[in-house]
Write a structure and sequence with these properties.
Sodium-phosphate symporter. Keywords: Membrane, Phosphate transport, Transmembrane, Transmembrane helix, Transport. By secondary structure, the chain is mostly helical. It has helices at 7-38, 44-62, 64-72, 84-107, 114-130, 142-172, 177-203, 215-246, 272-293, 298-306, 323-327, 334-359, 361-376, 388-405, 407-413, 422-441, 448-461, 471-500. The protein folds into 2 domains: 7-173 and 314-500, no CATH class; 177-266, no CATH class.
């Protein structure tokens, strides 16, 4: 094989890698933002806007380690010695099989694991190429990944439960829960920023020169930076929340840096006549909009069709089948829950960052091998660095899938596992981010689907009632996880066999 030979495989691999990343964004969007949207903290449109940045940055800054594990930790690369073209073909069919299954499952509203999908696809390709001996079944191959499937939801459930029980007994059940919540917010700021800064600095930027500082020094730097943010949040942010929620002042987000110097800002009085005039104006605007809808330009119609998913109602609050489960959840002070509305935005960002860092590997790990073989005509090592542009490409694909198609899984999971409030969603998201970012640093491709599902079940059990969790939905999720591995493996294996073992051309 020569460099830049089999360009058609590289081109097809690029297309399938984008499709796989698109499916990952569409399916796993629920893992990062389902709790935020279902609790009412964020609208679906706001969640997508935030995730466009956090998913991309997570993929770019922390996506390299898990990409290396996916690419070289499942199939024994020595079986492909002397046949880089065959490995190139195998990785292409793996991405194709994974993409086909993830997108199909998303269209059906099945919350599957994209980590399961790519693992099964690469495994199926390896078996189709050289038999079962070509797959690394024992540790640190498939066994480590399979172990993470069972340990990650348990760990996330324990971490989220500890966070929520601490919040429940120190803040939510207190007679003066709002005041205690104001004091607790800086601590949560410290925890969230410390964990993420620790892993970002320790991991370093992808490529040469990253991650050279000793861990102890990194911990001190992260702790001091997070302490500064916590102090800032106590002096400025907590005071802003107190005045906005408790005193009902007319404040905007840009007032936070100057809140100690800002005088009292009462909400403007609303006159009954003004309300009627506003209502009439809105009705008139609606009538005008309806009349003008027929005159929309082709561009406007295409835009509305393309982004119709971000306007979907995905909260499931009026679902009669979930009424009993929601009624079993303990309710807390509305003002205190409103307090967690703001802090949950931060936890949603950390969870999304963690998701981007971990799940980008599922698309770009095999694709990085395709690119390197096409470019160098050599089989890359299991620990070869993943190019930054490949990580950025995967992050962009995840963002597209999230915005354009993610509402399917959001609707399937919104308040379906347990009743979600801002305080519960915050603890579940922070517990998930702690679990997934930690796994990303260790190079362990855990499933964010497992983590957030386990975290929500753990928080639901903190109600003290086993029936406060929708175990049917949980079993449904688990069944879809089990189906993913063989389905993606079968598709990938069939694609590979169809191409690699097709009849040779007969020359007459």
């Amino acid at each position: 094989m020569l460099p830049h030979q089999y360009t058609h495989i590289f081109v097809l691999g690029t297309i399938f890698a984008f499709c796989d990343a698109f499916g990952i964004g569409a399916n796993d969007v629920a893992n990062s933002f389902a709790t935020s949207v279902s609790s009412g903290t964020l609208s679906l449109k706001q969640a997508c806007l935030i995730a466009v940045f956090t998913e991309f940055l997570g993929a770019l800054l922390l996506g390299s380690n898990t990409a290396e594990t996916i690419r070289g930790g499942i199939v024994k690369l020595e079986y492909f010695n002397g046949r880089p073209d065959l490995l190139m073909l195998g990785m292409m069919t793996s991405i194709a099989g994974s993409a086909a299954w993830v997108i199909f499952a998303t269209s059906q509203g099945w919350p599957i694991s994209s980590t399961h999908s790519i693992t099964g696809a690469v495994l199926g390709m390896g078996v189709a190429a050289f038999g079962k001996d070509a797959v690394t079944w024992k540790w640190p191959g498939v066994a480590r990944i399979v172990t993470s499937w069972f340990t990650s939801p348990v760990i996330a459930a324990v971490v989220a439960s500890i966070l929520f029980l601490t919040t429940k007994y120190t803040v939510l059940r207190s007679e003066n829960s709002f005041r205690r919540g104001l004091i607790a917010i800086p601590f949560y700021f410290f925890l969230a920023f410390f964990v993420n800064l620790l892993f970002i600095i320790t991991n370093g930027t992808p490529g040469k020169g990253g991650g050279k500082l000793p861990f102890g020094k990194v911990a001190w730097i992260s702790a001091l930076a997070s302490l500064g943010i916590a102090i800032y949040s106590y002096v400025f942010y907590s005071k802003w929340l107190e005045r906005k929620i408790l005193n009902n002042e007319n404040l905007r987000w840009y007032h936070i840096p100057v809140i100690p110097f800002l005088g009292h800002r009462p909400m403007p009085e609303v006159v009954a006549g003004d309300v009627e005039n506003q209502k009439a104006q809105e009705e008139g605007d609606l009538e005008i909009a309806e009349q003008g809808s027929a005159k929309k330009s082709i561009f406007k119609k295409a835009k509305d069709k393309l982004f119709h998913g971000v306007n979907k109602d995905v909260r499931n609050l009026n679902n009669e089948k979930l009424t009993d489960i929601h009624d079993r959840a303990e309710k807390y002070d509305d003002e205190t829950e409103r307090l967690f509305n703001f802090i949950q935005v931060l936890s949603a960002c950390t969870a999304s960052f963690a998701h981007g860092s971990n799940d980008v590997a599922n698309a770009v790990g095999p694709y990085a091998s395709i690119f390197e073989i096409w470019n160098n005509a050599e089989i890359p090592g299991a620990k070869s660095p993943v190019p930054i542009w490949v990580l950025a490409f995967g992050g962009f694909g995840i963002d597209c899938g999230l915005v354009l198609y993610g509402y399917h899984i959001m609707r399937a999971l919104g308040n379906n596992i347990t009743y979600t409030t801002p305080s519960r969603g915050f603890c579940a998201e922070l517990g998930t981010s702690l679990t997934v970012v930690g796994a990303s640093k260790l190079g362990l491709p855990v499933s964010t689907t497992h983590c957030i599902t386990g975290a929500m079940a753990g928080v639901g059990l903190c109600n003290g009632d086993i029936h406060a969790v929708n175990w049917k939905m949980y079993a449904y999720c688990f069944f879809s996880w089990i189906m993913t591995l063989p389905a993606a493996g079968l598709l990938s294996g069939l694609f590979f066999a169809l191409i690699a073992y097709s009849p040779e051309k007969v020359h007459v």
